[in-house]
């Protein structure tokens, strides 16, 4: 399996920053975007349950409505692709059964191969106080994977918690579904005049952030 050099990884992560101004005239090509969507799909999740939905917005008319739901920020409108990461509100036995059926089909297992594990998983999930809190935390794993994947492909991102989740839910038709907006991520290419592009990264030292045991 091909890998990249450690210095290449660090170079791309040093290049990455939270874009404040996107170039509205630049669009991500289909092959690159397909790879980024696959990054989202390949995100790991607790028990493999994938308690999320990713809404990809490219319609200019819809994007034009997003700044009003994003504290006036223009990134959702000017970026190439706006991704809304939504978490599942609940995790019930029916959903777990559907996932187990997918496992059986994908791995070509006997029909009853996962029944014992399914019962254990249902019992475990029933003990979780807030499914939404649990699922929302997992959504951030997908956000991180998307941002790193984009950086490796030379694509810019801006993670956005400064949004109105309920407003996004209404606009995107999520309000009456099993999913709710958690966070957004604008994806595209930085504008040449974005002053933040050349700002030095400010990070605490490794000695302050990392404990080695």
Give a quick rundown of the structure.
The chain is an alpha+beta fold and 213 residues long. It has helices spanning 6-15, 30-41, 60-63, 75-78, 93-106, 115-126, 131-152, 165-172, 206-209; strands at residues 52-57, 81-88, 156-160, 179-188. It has a single domain (6-91, 128-209), classed as NADH Oxidase, CATH 3.40.109.10.
What do these coordinates show?
This protein has 213 residues and is of the alpha+beta class. It has a single domain, classed as 3-Layer(aba) Sandwich (NADH Oxidase). Helices cover 42% and strands 14% of the residues. The protein has nine helices and four strands, in the order ααβααβαααβαβα. It has helices at 6-15, 30-41, 60-63, 75-78, 93-106, 115-126, 131-152, 165-172, 206-209; strands spanning 52-57, 81-88, 156-160, 179-188. The protein has a four-stranded antiparallel beta sheet with strand order 1-2-4-3, with helices on both faces. Helix 5 runs antiparallel to helix 6. It is globular, with a radius of gyration of 19 Å. The two termini are 31 Å apart. The model has no long low-confidence stretch (mean pLDDT 97).
């Amino acid at each position: 399996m091909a890998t990249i050099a450690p210095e290449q990884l660090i170079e791309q992560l040093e290049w990455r920053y939270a874009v404040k101004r996107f170039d509205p005239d630049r669009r991500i090509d289909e092959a690159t975007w397909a790879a980024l969507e696959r990054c989202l799909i390949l995100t790991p999740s607790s028990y493999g349950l994938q308690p999320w939905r990713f809404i990809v917005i490219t319609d200019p008319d819809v994007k034009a409505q997003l700044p009003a739901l994003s504290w006036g920020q223009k990134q959702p409108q000017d970026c190439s692709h706006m991704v809304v990461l939504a978490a599942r509100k609940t995790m019930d036995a029916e959903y777990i059964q559907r996932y187990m059926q997918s496992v059986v089909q994908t791995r070509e297992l006997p029909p009853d191969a996962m029944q014992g594990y399914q019962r254990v998983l249902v019992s475990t999930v029933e003990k979780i106080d807030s499914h939404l809190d649990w699922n929302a935390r997992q959504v951030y794993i997908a956000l991180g994977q998307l941002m790193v994947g984009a950086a490796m492909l030379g694509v810019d991102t801006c993670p956005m918690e400064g949004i109105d989740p309920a407003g996004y839910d209404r606009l995107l038709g999520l309000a009456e579904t099993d999913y709710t907006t958690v966070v957004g991520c604008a994806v595209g290419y930085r504008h040449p005049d974005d002053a933040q592009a050349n700002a030095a990264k400010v990070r605490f030292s490794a000695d302050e952030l990392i404990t080695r045991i």
